[in-house]
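thoughts on both lines:
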Amino acid sequence: MGIEVGGLLGLIVLALDVWAIIKIFDSGASTASRLLWTLLIILLPIVGLIIWWLFGPRGGTRLASS
């Protein structure tokens, strides 16, 4: 009965990975950079998340074109 610790930890990692990918696509980084960061997080969920947190693009810098 209940959720296993591994399952709960996996769910937390999944939620953080999804949040990181959303932040990557909200950043002003180039398309190639976004793709590489996303692949890193998908292929190495925990390590990729830590590397992105330390060195990744920051969100909210994209400018709207008119």
Remarks:
- The two ends are 55 Å apart (CA to CA).
- Residues 5-26 form the longest helix (22 residues).
